[in-house]
Design brief:
The protein is mostly helical and 180 residues long. It has four helices and two strands; from the N terminus they run αβαβαα. The radius of gyration is 38 Å and the shape is rod-shaped.
């Protein structure tokens, strides 16, 4: 003899089945949430690793650029000394004065601004000695090399900073290819 009526047995079975379905649904949700959290964590770790690798490459580039700049300074000093020495060691009969128009045209070339035509007339601008002109040209070339090095460094930095996985720019600069 069964004390539980058949209707209640059916209801109990349906409730049991609903409970199992609900439990499996909850288990699936938790599993998916865990997988999403694990994937997000993996992505965050990957991004952090890429950022750290990029920073190491940028630090290495900075060290390389600074080493090149430091190595160039003694060479620049030697050149400057030789230019200064020119004014005192070259005999007067081997030296000359450059027409003022030369200085005006040189200034125009250095600044990128056209020369005033009135200043190009003979005698309108004071003449300049060859030693003074040589000092100016030497200083201009030195500044030009500094500017080229800066732009090359900025280009290399941008290449590294904009590409988290590409070490090509650093290796190209280290091999002297930064002026590509």
């Amino acid at each position: 003899m069964n004390l539980i009526p058949p209707l209640y047995r059916w209801l109990a079975g349906i409730l049991l089945l609903a409970g199992v379905l609900l439990a499996s649904y909850q288990h699936g949700r938790q599993t998916m949430a865990g997988e999403f959290a694990r994937e997000r964590l993996d992505n965050e770790r990957l991004a952090a690793a890429q950022l750290a690798a990029r920073q190491r490459r940028i630090d290495a580039l900075f060290a390389s650029l600074e080493a090149a700049r430091t190595a160039q300074k003694p060479k620049d000093k030697i050149i400057t000394k030789e230019i200064i020495k020119y004014g005192t060691t070259v005999p007067a009969d081997r030296r000359c004065a450059l027409d003022g128009a030369w200085r005006v045209l040189h200034d125009a070339a250095a600044t990128g601004q056209p020369a005033d035509p009135a200043s190009l007339v003979a005698g309108a601008a004071p003449s300049v000695t060859d030693a003074t002109a040589l000092e100016t040209v030497g200083e201009n070339y030195n500044r030009c090399r500094d500017a080229i090095d800066q732009v090359s460094g900025w280009r290399a930095w941008y290449g590294l900073a904009s590409s988290p996985t590409d070490a090509h720019h650093l290796s190209a600069h280290a091999q002297g290819g930064a002026n590509d």
